[in-house]
Write a structure and sequence with these properties.
By secondary structure, the chain is mostly beta strands. About 5% of the residues lie in helices and about 40% in strands.
């Protein structure tokens, strides 16, 4: 059985494959089985604490901040200022609240000061989702808002933000954002039948102009998006990046207006809810929530070979066939200094976090998958997983849309190492 072999390999590799040095969990936890003030089930020796909570519920929380009053904060993704002055000091979170009430919050981890930004000059942000620190020292954030979600680039001055709409990067239901060392921006359209995109700026670090591409996989299989494991199809195999230029390759729509429509006109292979994106070394990883997979895309070539890096068709069981140790709806991604990929599930009340070990044998799939944690807060999912380069042995985990209304950000650590 694939699962039995996988578990055996995972346990033997654990001491060498993660800065947390953990013995993997053997099954998912039960929703509601832990206190909402310490909601993660973790391996022995791994601890959790609350960095920020929405409501004054948990006495041990370091900070309390209600970002969007009158409703759940829908705390989503996170980053710190990874370069520049005071690097690592400011912690940024997006808030996926609807109806123009999306927001970004900032925490000064040294002083405890906070600020809240709502995009009022743009008529209010709607479902603010992805967030990425760029190599040139700005923040990218975007809206998961239908086919016309916007991407913004923000100049940072400590707790202050000044943001500019970047339509050239493409309008879509934005989720994942990632920047590769060559300055290209990779994007995901969070939609059943959406596409994966790459924006190449005309000049490094200038997102006001450039070329948007969509990924086309030359697969004989027709993409089917279904919530039932085993029915959905994830296109893999030889691929190419197709330029989305009106007047070429069947493209009529300007992607700065609607990138999803432009990709359809170009006839590229669709994906099933492509969500978060993470860059590790020479590869880009994209989670496909509906088809329960994470794919690997080499980023340094115009004709990449796309493989299923972790998923129910290769090296994991589905939660439907193995309820206590199966993958369901992979969503947010993170990586550590050793090249491990962390995968959080979009699974209300029992959201697992897995660790996929690097592909040392070069077959395009993770060498092993380990269960690291389960979020047990009823109604909630683990989102915004992130490991700061200044704190490589701490995983940040956001708790989103908790039934009790107390969204929060957790830190998960073994030894708190500052570099």
């Amino acid at each position: 059985m694939v699962f039995a072999a996988m578990l055996s390999v995972s346990c033997s590799l654990t001491p060498r494959t993660s800065p947390f040095h953990f013995l993997p969990l053997t099954q998912s936890a039960v929703p509601g089985s832990m206190s909402t003030c310490a909601p993660l089930v973790l391996p022995e020796g791994i601890t959790q604490s609350i960095l920020v909570q929405e409501q004054p519920v948990c006495s041990q929380a370091m900070h309390t901040l209600d970002v969007v009053t009158g409703t759940s904060d829908w705390t989503d993704m996170s980053t710190v200022n990874e370069t520049g002055m005071h690097s690592g000091r400011y912690f940024y979170r997006t808030h996926e609240t609807k109806e123009g009430r999306g927001a970004m919050s900032v925490l000064d981890v040294e002083t405890g000061q906070t600020s809240i930004h709502t995009g009022e000059e743009f008529g209010g942000w709607d479902r603010l989702d992805g967030i990425e620190w760029t190599p040139w020292g700005t923040i990218l954030t975007a809206e998961e808002a239908g086919a016309y979600g916007r991407l913004f680039e923000c100049q940072v001055d400590r707790l202050l933000l000044t943001c500019v709409d970047r339509p050239a990067v493409g309008r879509m239901s934005h989720e994942g954002i990632a920047v590769t060392p060559d300055g290209s921006v990779y994007l995901a359209d969070e939609f059943d039948g959406g596409s994966i995109f790459k924006f190449v700026p005309d000049a490094y670090g200038d997102l006001s102009a450039g070329q948007l591409f969509a990924l086309n996989v030359h697969s004989r299989e027709v993409t089917i998006c279904s919530e039932t494991p085993g029915i959905g199809v994830t296109p893999t195999g030889p691929a190419e990046w197709v330029a989305l230029t009106p007047g070429r390759d069947g493209v009529v729509t300007d992607p700065a207006y609607n990138a999803r429509a432009a990709a359809r006109e170009a006839g590229v292979a669709p994906f099933c809810r492509s969500e978060d994106i993470e860059v590790i070394d020479d590869n880009v990883y994209v989670s496909l929530t509906t088809t329960h997979a994470v794919i690997q895309i080499p980023w340094g070539t115009p004709t990449p070979e796309v493989t299923e890096y972790a998923g129910i068709n290769t090296n994991m069981q589905s939660e439907e066939s193995m309820p206590t140790y199966g993958l369901y709806a992979p969503d947010n991604l993170a990586s550590d200094q050793d090249g491990n990929l962390y995968i959080a599930e979009d699974n209300s009340g029992r959201s697992d976090i897995w660790v996929a070990a690097p592909d040392k044998d070069g077959d395009g799939t993770a060498d092993s998958i380990m269960l690291f944690a389960t979020l047990t807060t009823r109604g909630a999912e683990a989102t915004g997983i992130y490991i700061s380069p200044f704190d490589p042995a701490t995983l940040y985990v956001n708790v989103q849309h908790a039934d009790n209304g107390n969204d929060m950000t957790l830190t998960v650590s073994r030894n708190h190492v500052q570099q």
